[in-house]
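STRUCTURE REQUEST FORM
Protein name: Tripartite motif-containing protein 2
Source organism: Magallana gigas
Requested output: structure tokens
Priority: standard
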Amino acid sequence: WFCRKCNESAVFQQHCHYRADDSKALYAVLKEKIFLENKELKENIKPFLQKELDVISKQRLEIETAYKTAKELLETCERLLLEQVKSAAKYLANALQEKEDEQINRIEHLQKVIERKVDDLESLIQKNSNLLSSDDKSIYCLFESKIADFCTYPELKQLNGLEKPEFKPNLLVHETFPHFIGEFIYQGTENHINQFDIRTDNFEIVKKHLQQHPIVLKVLQSSSPTQGSFDFATVSPSRVLTSGAEKRVQMLDASMRDGSLQTYKVSCESPYIAFSSSRGIYYSHRTDDQRSTIKTIENMNSNEIDTVLWFFDVELRGLAFNSFGHLLVCVCSKKDKRSFVERYDRNIIKVQEIEHNGDKPLYKKPSFVCCNRNGNVCVADHGLNAVIVVDQFGVFQFSYRGQNENSFRPYSLATDHLCNIVITDNVNHKIHLLDKYGEFLTFLMTEPTIVTPGAVVIDRKGKLWIGESMSGKVHVIKYLGGNSVKTPVQRPTALTVGAIIRSSTATRLSKVV
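Status: completed
Returned output:
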């Protein structure tokens, strides 16, 4: 309002010169501006700078103290080293003098002995000369030889004990000479805080739960010893449903001697099975008119079969239920070359379709699927030869392609109460164990080795059921320590429209890892 031009254009900015009709109003504005600026400088800027000065002063005091302490320690070290060097030199000089005195005494004693020998020799020579100059032959008969006394010199053996000193000083080479008494270590003035690594922490926790060697509790034999089991579904801690090439569903009981309990003669052209929390058996079926369906047997004591879902021009593969009782279905569409995982709620209404990671497809041939307690969807893809894991909203988490990507061939997979993932590789006869973040934990090695491990499931007590693809044997294994695990029952939670929208958006925005 004090700049006519800015007022007309509705633009407000600061000017070096103000043009206003009322000089008093202008002075009042400028005075208020100066007052507020001064207040800002006093209340905010000055305390901030003072705080910085306090920090710098504190750092300077700490630096000066640290350097003073280091200098004092260096001087003390110098004094102590000089005292030690003098003491060591004095000790070595005394020891050298003692050794010299002892050697000289031995030499002087030996010298005196030899000198006496020489005197005796001169006397003997003179005596023999006198005999030779005498004419009395009777004297020759009294001659006794003394030469034997001079042919042996036992005193000379003492020369073997004489030693000449040679001093070798412990002097360092010139490259390391400045640091032979020590060195300074410079530390930063700021404390570095180690960030908490949840992956490493989880890895160590899971490692503590693993047994050193998995224990094979029982080996069961299915009724198809030459064809093996195709898929598993757990019914109870001791009972597991199996499907195989015989196109029927049978139930194995680990508490029975022969392992078999009851067989359901149900036509299963595509023998992927799942067992719901309502005690219903679900399996996929392909009709003659290229239609695929998902059928259900109402309960364990009934043979009534109902069709709950119909599909056209698609191939249905793995089935599974999550902790909310929702059905997951692996779907491969040959017509439009799509591969995805669909999720249906308890009313068999489709609420989710998991297909893409950003702008790239997640799957090529999803074959087996399972869910962990966190809701993550784990898929064994036979086309990619990989295990793909997404969260409950379909956002990509990680993929696992084995310890040797060229030879890894995942068949089936299951998750335990720690959200670990057990993966069977029936080509390499390996059983891989991952934690919930995709970190490789170990190979589950059993004795004897499980040949061509295929279908796999984990019951509510944490026991691992693994079927051999070719022999029909089913191994019941304990690989986690501790007592039986009771999985808490979670209440079903409906996925809202907003959650579905967020899921779709997050899926499109996620990046390939």
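Reviewer notes: The first strand starts at residue 210 and ends at 221. Residues 279 and 301 are 10 Å apart (CA to CA).
Form closed.
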